[in-house]
Amino acid sequence: MKKAKKIKLFIGLFYLLAVSTILYFVFSNYTIQEITSYEFIKNNRNFFFELRQSNFFMLVSLYIFLTIIWTFAAGIGFPVGLLAGFIFGTWFGVLFCVIGQTIGATCLYVFANYFLKDIIKEKFLSRFNNLKLGFNKSEFNFLLIYRFIGGIPFAISNVLPCMFNVKKSNFFFATLIGIIPQNFLISSIGSGLEKIVVQNTKPPTFMNIIRSPDIHIPLLVFFGLVMITIIIRKYVYQK
């Protein structure tokens, strides 16, 4: 247990150092006003477009690598999905995002399963013990549903299966398939935002953004998916 706590402390310090380094690099080169300005977004859209045209493989490799690191360290999927759609478009965006998130999530699962299992059980077993029956009954199928319906923060959902000794292969492939729907919708929104940036020399209003079919259609589908998963979630997690 002492060893696990030392590892947890080391991870926390490493994470804080990494975040601090990134923030220092960003804000030493740009101000908050520049980062949040429409001109900054438009210029970076042009930068990514030119890089995509000149060195597509390098850009893809860099994006997947950073997504793996982000998923392992932060576990928040929405920003990388939005960025993927913005840079690569809907179809390539969802492909690269799902690959990066799946590898990152699996690395986190393997790491947590080896080093942090006791801590995870201590923190979460009493709250999520109701999932045990589902995992024991049909590990892959339940994990696939578990990924699809969500309801648990992505970072936590990556480590909870440690309590139930889920096979790494089942975790990987269920994650790979299960996170496609939501990532497809998020990438669609990111791609829609990129089109709006291209079509507007001046910052569009919020209503103009919402009225765009490239934005409001994926948003409506996304909210519909959320409502469906909430209904399914109550049944699955209660069982």
Name some characteristics of this structure.
239 residues; mainly alpha; globular; 2 domains
Question: What's a quick, concise take on this entry?
Answer:
The protein is mostly helical.
Describe this structure in words.
The chain is an all-alpha fold and 239 residues long. The protein has 2 domains: 1-35; 37-238, no CATH class. It is 85% helix and 0% strand. It is built from 14 helices and no strands. α3 (38-54) packs across α4 and α12 (180-199) packs antiparallel against α14 (213-238). It is globular.
Radius of gyration from CA coordinates: 20 Å
- Major sheet characteristics: none
Helix coverage percent of residues?
A: over 70%
| Beta-strand percentage range | under 5%
Broad shape: globular
Question: What is the average of the pLDDT values?
Answer: 76
The tally of strands reads 0
What distance separates the N and C termini? 32 Å
Detail the topology: elements first, then pairings.
Blueprint: H1 2-29, H2 32-36, H3 38-54, H4 56-73, H5 78-88, H6 90-115, H7 117-128, H8 132-137, H9 139-149, H10 154-159, H11 168-178, H12 180-199, H13 206-211, H14 213-238
Helix pairs in contact: 3-4, 4-6, 5-6, 5-12, 6-11, 6-12, 9-11, 12-14
